[in-house]
Amino acid sequence: MALLKTNRPFLKLLPTGCRILSCCFSSRIIEQPPYWHKIFPDKRIRNFDEMPTVGPVIEEYKNFKIHESYQRWVKDVGHVVKELFPDGSCCVHVYYKDDFKTVYQNDGGHPLRKSHGIIAKYRQDRPLIYGNVGLGPGLGAEWAKLRKMIPSGVGGKYYLPFRYDLEGITNDFIELILSKLDKNGEVELLPLLFRWAFESIGFVVLNRHLGSLRFDGEEEVNNLIEAAHLTNEIVFLSNVCDFEKQYERLVPIQDYFASKVIQYVEDTINLHSYGPCIVTNLWEAGFDVKLIPILIMDLFQGAIATVPLTLTWALYHLSRCPGIQERAREELIERMPTKQSKYYKNIEGERRGELLLEPGHASPHVQAILRETLRLSPPIIGNGRVSQKDLVLGGYMVPAGTMIVLQIQAACMLEDYFERPSEFLPDRYIDRNKYHQVTGVNIPFGFGARFCIGQPFAHGQLILALSKILRNFEVSYDREEVGVINRLHNEPDRPVIFKMKPLKQ
Ligand code: HEM
């Protein structure tokens, strides 16, 4: 293990993804023995067959509870766990920071991930429509070709000019919440958040409003959101069972999703009436017209569930910690004196001021709440890679070509890394010395060349929406406890009906 000393002043110059890197690589490195020497004092590297093994565990996948097994295995089975699948293949689950580092350091310029094979097949089966299997499913040069189309991700020129419109969309979302409150002042927020997320990513990619925030939502938008959810579930199940059956389910859903997104993209290119956006930028830059809709489909697919789920979990935790909610609100009132105050006006001229990890303009409590939510209840459990060379993980030799799951959420639940890990304590990110914690473990957006392409957009949207919601409503929840099901994403296992009391001013 390498102990880290970072040269903090330079951190501000690095893009967010690199700041995580700075936790792992630093100017002064003090070599430490690998952590697994404590587990195997003989220091002998074990071979792959000696690794503790579980499975197949298909029922846990089918009832969407596999995340519970992942969290249990590190306590009951081992610090590195091999999971067998029914077809005889396997994957390796790693839980320790040093193993994350080994995997990321060796994943090359074109990191391999295997999880979206069913989408790859769907697109490969339709070569006349798709010139590429897509960003999520793509491998090697095929993936790199798409990724290079927006090298800095949905950030910079693909995000900053849209922030004022995104705030307008968020204001419409607040109005929609008000109009949906029932006589008890309650509402199920998550379906509205999906619509807000759809409208927001739609604006950035197409520079047009899609009608998602009308009272009942545009029918087409509702269908597309449903198609995106079903696609996530199918991707999840197809990784472990019933590939053929899942493929049959996928075809009509993707036929619909793809046809609509292709139509959106063609309209934006042909009608020239909407204004600058990701699609027109890519078109004017001369990118292959067959590739643009594929990238846009993957951006819609990536954006619809992740940010809304994070916000739902944040509000759920906050509704149980009114004191923390109140402290955040006090900070927000300083920044936005009335409910009508603009959020972005406060940071005009500060191009990066709203980023989640950036101290400064955004309320420190809002930032800490989101960071803690992403630690305890991230939308995605971890990160997958296929090793491109033999690697020693946790003291075992793992051969090249093995699928590896970096269990980031489960690692964030280990006392080795976080004091009182199962508690929601945003204060750990306000006063970093208050509770013991290890940096570089809470990496919910992945890492390296393939880290989440939507990260800057997601950061901005999380802060904007949570700030606006807390500035407009006192949020509480007094129904039964909410559990988690995982269908690619960590979702609530029941409707989360929040009480949202509008603030007076
Ligand atoms: C809280 C919000 C989000 C979280 C926690 C999240 C997390 C992740 C993670 C862990 C990965 C895999 C990274 C890796 O392999 O290293 C990923 C990939 C991806 N994300 Fe996100 N994401 C979020 C929001 C978004 C948004 C808003 C978009 C679209 C604007 C998006 C689009 C994508 C795409 C297209 C990929 C595949 C990238 C590639 O393989 O090159 N994500 N995301």
UniProtKB/TrEMBL annotation:
Required co-factors: heme
InterPro entries, alphabetized: CYP11_CYP27_families, Cyt_P450, Cyt_P450_CS, Cyt_P450_E_grp-I, Cyt_P450_sf
Keywords: Heme, Iron, Metal-binding, Monooxygenase, Oxidoreductase
Binding site for heme: 452
GO molecular function: heme binding; iron ion binding; monooxygenase activity; oxidoreductase activity, acting on paired donors, with incorporation or reduction of molecular oxygen
Record-stated family: Belongs to the cytochrome P450 family.
UniProt-recorded name of the protein: Cytochrome P450 302a1, mitochondrial
Species for this entry: Trichonephila clavata
